[in-house]
Write a structure and sequence with these properties.
Layout (H helix, E strand, L loop, with lengths): L7 H24 L6 H26 L10 H17 L2 E3 L2 E3 L1 H18 L3 H30 L1
Antiparallel strand pairs: 1-2
Helix pairs in contact: 1-2, 1-4, 1-5, 2-3, 2-4, 3-4, 4-5
Length: about 150
Amino acid sequence: MGQSELPLIDLFIRLSIATGLGFLLGIERELRGKPAGLRSHMLVAMGSAAFVMVGMEILYATATGDPSARIDPTRIVEGVVGGIGFLGAGSIIQARGHIQGITTGASIWIAGAVGVASGVGNLPLAGLTAAFALVTITVLGFFEKEVLSDRDQ
């Protein structure tokens, strides 16, 4: 397993899209002053994409009979999801009886999903997931803050 089965331009595109979409998710959290912002989301998306591409390389090596590839590459996705869950949980805190950071934790999880989708080359899924997440975070966040909070007063 040495030379990549994916051309360098494909690696570049997949990592760039994952990082760029992570940027979009992270900038919203950054602008709101949340604990996990721009760099965190970018790194989670980029790392997820990289891990999945490594898994794909193992899959290609397995298909060509390379004896060094004796693992199930889908376990890499499981590991990525577990690791991201750990990061997301770390952004959730309880202070004075209120729980904070759940949306940030969820956005970190979505950044991982965007990275995984980018890594496997499903760029439309990555883009749509990021777009839906941004709409959910911004539009519904505004709705919760402005409309629902006015109702409670």
